[in-house]
Amino acid sequence: MASCAVPQFALLIALLIAMLADLSPALAQPVIRIDGSSTVYPINVAVAEDFRKARRKEDARAAQARVAIGVSGTGGGFRLLCRGEADIAGASRPVRSDEAAECAGAGIEYIELPVAFDALTVVVHPHNGFIRQLSIAELKKIWEPAAEGKALLWSDVNPGWPRLPMRLFGPGPESGTFEYFTETVVGRAKASRRDFTASEDDEVLVQGVARDANALGYFGYAYYAENRQRLRAVPIVNGQGKAVAPSAQVVESGDYNPLARPLFIYVNARSLERPELRGFVAHYLARAARLVSEVGYVPLGEKTYVLARERLQQVRTGSGK
Fold first, then answer.
1. What is the chain's pLDDT, residue by residue, as a tens digit (321 residues)?
2. How far is Cα 224 from Cα 203, in angstroms, rounded to an integer?
3. Spatial separation of the C-alpha atoms in residues 50 and 12, rounded to whole Å
4. In 121-270, where do the E strands start and end?
5. What domains can be seen in the chain, in order of their start residue?
């Protein structure tokens, strides 16, 4: 009788293996891979959570999809997108020509979708009593390459300011925010002094300024809005000579130029062949206006969202189309 037990046991194991093999495709959890801008990150997180809740009953497979969200900066997100390692790249600036060429060389087509406006926000510690507003010229004196090792005290920028050490916090060179800020303020993308605390993690920048009465930093408005009890936003003098504090209203009116900017997601067109990914992006555009406001950014006009949904539906690849 013992001699019969081994074959029967082996047969049972074989049957179990066969059953698991048949079930494995159904059990496999689809993954939606998002990376890129730290500025767009709060929107991505809000959309992912809203998508999970909304689709739990509507579409079992879409609801089961795991959304993996990374933060490697806008430049890092484009590299991952062009390598086929990300389905969606968040970006706080439009794709550059060299990045578009990299994707084209790898056979990766993408769809550019605007999702929000941001008010790039310059912040100081709440106890800072001397910086009441800043002009673009003053920001340039603080951040330009020529300031490195020379503009070390606040009085070096403005003789009316105290002789206190100036400690600066800003995004790293992979950040789209860094590129946008340097191009707008200094006049050339990535032209910046290097003697500052740089991080792709905006929370690090928030903590740095919040703990130092002599600090100044810049990042997306949502991070300021979430930490407004610990930071003070500095009004920026616009082209009309008016000092304007960042808010949704001044972004919409155009009064916060030149530090108002659009935010984007770039979607791998091939990834849209997967139903869970297409469903996620459609959900993103359908709920963007509400979720963007909730995390602290400024929604686009409804007409812009309609055009973005049409671009998605028609899979119109490239940018600016």
1. 444 444 555 555 555 555 555 544 444 678 999 999 999 999 999 999 999 888 765 655 555 788 999 999 999 999 999 999 999 999 999 999 999 999 999 999 999 999 999 999 999 999 999 999 999 999 999 999 999 999 999 999 999 999 999 999 999 998 999 999 999 999 999 999 999 999 989 999 999 999 999 999 999 999 999 999 999 999 999 989 999 999 999 999 999 999 999 999 999 999 999 999 999 999 999 999 999 999 999 999 999 999 999 999 999 998 865
2. 10
3. 43
4. 121-124, 167-170, 197-198, 215-219, 232-233, 236-237, 243-244, 260-268
5. 30-116+263-313 (3.40.190.10), 121-258 (3.40.190.10)
How many residues belong to the chain? 321
In this structure, the strands spanning 197-198 and 121-124 are unpaired
Measured CA to CA, the distance from residue 72 to residue 89 in angstroms comes to 10
**Burial of 258: CB neighbours in 10 Å, binned 0-12, 13-18, 19+:** middle
Q: Which residues pair with 118 in a beta bridge?
A: 261
* Tokens matching residue 179: 């590129």
Q: Are 102 and 65 in contact (CB under 8 A)?
A: no
Q: Which amino acid belongs to residue 209? A: V
